[in-house]
């Protein structure tokens, strides 16, 4: 039911501590129980399971509870031991877990959505349950009475949701690639702003209330850091994944961002460096280096008797250039490009070896990650995969 892994001494890499592999279908959400050797998981196989580590070193289920429909998402509050769980049929069911995590008591049921619940959050300070669904509705309920307090209609399915307790701002990321900021009141909400930087759907959000920075991950493989509190509109792009980003979490004590993707990649980003915004791509009818016309510039092609060329852009300066003037590639870590990207010849000459020093480390989880959870008190990371396996990692060698 659970395999005990004997970690080998390694340096600067996550250490695989355990694997839990008893689910019959994909584990959509799983969390580490703080101060306990335990894990809570909810799965497409309709089960809620609480796994506790036994003396043998293996994780065995102390609770195995079957729901009437697939369990799509979950939020767990360790202070109250309240488990809020969203389902395929649009219902949110809440349970209170016993102190020894051997029993679940039903507490509340919300008829929150007309379709699959995509994200659920329990906010203890407000006694609110925030949720989003495939019906394109964002709702919040009172966890005491179970009544719906408000509703906001979104433009697309919501796949990322974060909440700032101090300002009562909700950050909503959807399938159109847009992030919406809403100001919530007791029974109403107002639209603050919307912004978009991704070419694919938003798949994960992470909010740091101290730095007042929002991180968004997308199916376009990129991560964007939005400086919400700085009031300067700064947006830093991070490129370090080959597939869609599935999870984000921030370790404020070390100023490191952890991201996971569906190809199994785990990337640790050093955010304690001065990063640069990527430039806007410039428009031009001809190469801004050699002045050769691009293929749509018929007049210059006729006048100069030259064949039109395809337009490219230098990732460092943003200029429109032809392929001959941008034949070289380089990493630009401080601009978020940990992989080699196209740069023009003059920018390539200006990039030093020091500029190419990586600001992220890359690790392979060896399974297709669908969800991740980081527990900062222990330094442990949990990843659940499309292979129905939950893995526990000691991240202290790389997050410190």
From TrEMBL:
Record-level GO cellular component terms: early endosome
One of the GO biological process terms: positive regulation of fat cell differentiation
Ranges of residues in domain FYVE-type: 281-352
UniProt key word Metal-binding: yes
UniProt key word Lipid metabolism: no
Matches recorded under PROSITE patterns: WD_REPEATS_1 (PS00678), WD_REPEATS_2 (PS50082), WD_REPEATS_REGION (PS50294), ZF_FYVE (PS50178)
Gene Ontology molecular function: zinc ion binding
Chief localisation class: other
Compartment(s) of residence: Early endosome
A Pfam family: WD40
Keywords for this protein: Endosome, Metal-binding, Repeat, WD repeat, Zinc, Zinc-finger
WD repeats: 20-51, 195-228, 238-272, 362-395
Protein name in UniProt: WD repeat and FYVE domain-containing protein 2 isoform X1
Species assigned in the record: Salmo salar (Atlantic salmon)
Gene: LOC106582235
């Amino acid at each position: 039911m659970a395999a005990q892994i004997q970690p080998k001494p390694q340096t600067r890499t996550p250490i695989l501590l355990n694997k839990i592999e008893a689910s019959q279908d994909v584990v959509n959400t799983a969390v580490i129980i703080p101060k306990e050797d335990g894990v809570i998981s909810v799965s497409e196989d309709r089960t809620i399971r609480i796994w506790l580590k036994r003396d043998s070193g293996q994780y065995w289920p102390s609770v195995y509870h079957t729901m009437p429909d697939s369990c799509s998402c979950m939020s767990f509050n360790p202070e109250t031991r309240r488990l809020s769980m969203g389902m395929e049929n649009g219902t949110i069911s809440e349970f209170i877990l016993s102190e020894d995590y051997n029993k679940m008591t039903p507490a509340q049921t919300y008829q929150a959505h007309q379709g699959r619940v995509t994200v659920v959050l329990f906010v203890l300070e407000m006694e609110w349950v925030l949720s989003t669904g495939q019906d394109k509705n964002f709702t919040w309920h009172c966890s005491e009475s179970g009544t719906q307090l408000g509703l906001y209609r979104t433009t697309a399915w919501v796949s990322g949701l974060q909440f700032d307790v101090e300002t009562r701002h909700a950050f909503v990321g959807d399938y159109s690639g847009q992030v919406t900021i809403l100001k919530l009141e007791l029974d109403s909400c107002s639209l603050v702003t919307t912004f978009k930087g991704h070419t694919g759907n938003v798949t994960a959000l992470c909010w740091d209330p101290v730095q007042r920075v929002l991180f968004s991950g997308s199916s376009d493989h990129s991560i964007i850091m939005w400086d919400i509190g700085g009031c300067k509109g700064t947006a830093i792009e991070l490129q370090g994944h080959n597939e869609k980003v599935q999870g984000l979490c921030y370790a404020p004590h070390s100023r490191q961002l952890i991201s996971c993707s569906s190809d199994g990649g785990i990337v640790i980003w050093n955010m304690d460096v001065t990063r640069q915004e990527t430039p806007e791509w410039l428009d031009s009818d001809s190469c801004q280096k050699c002045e050769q016309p691009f293929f749509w510039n018929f007049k210059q092609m006729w006048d100069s008797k030259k064949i039109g060329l395809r337009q490219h852009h230098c990732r460092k300066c943003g200029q429109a250039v032809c392929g001959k003037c941008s034949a070289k590639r380089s990493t630009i870590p401080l601009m978020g490009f940990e992989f080699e990207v196209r740069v023009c010849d003059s920018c390539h000459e200006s990039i030093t070896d020091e500029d190419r020093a990586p600001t992220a480390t890359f690790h392979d989880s060896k399974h297709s990650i669908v969800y991740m959870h980081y527990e900062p008190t222990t330094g442990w990371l949990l990843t659940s995969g499309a292979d129905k396996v939950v893995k526990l990692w000691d991240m202290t060698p790389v997050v410190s």
